[in-house]
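If you are new to this repository, start here. Below is one unmodified record pulled from the training split, so you can see the exact layout before writing a loader.
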Amino acid sequence: MREEHEFFPVAAIDWRPADPGVTERVLSRDPDTSTLTRIARWEPGLETRGVIRHDYHEEVYLLEGELTDLTLGRTFRAGDFASRRPGMPHGPYRTDEGCTMLEIRTAPGESR
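And here is the target side for that same chain:
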């Protein structure tokens, strides 16, 4: 089950390394599943490799910057949103200026 939190200042959570070129502030998580809500920050110049698929539902809202989907040949910017079902292929990505996103992952079978 997800952690329970009342309103709190997100800035009070330190940025921590997540993946190469990515830092995160985890806002909420279920320690037993892939369910997670986080703010992720991608460094300028980051480029991922290969098409990505996961076993969870993922929603991404770009807060700042830009993100180019190299397969689609399209660049997305602050205010753009994606909702991906488990197994949906996406990426690889590149960001020239960097980006910050709100990401919500929900494990299969869990209600949101």
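Two things worth knowing about this chain: The two ends are 11 Å apart (CA to CA). DSSP finds no helices and eight strands in the chain.
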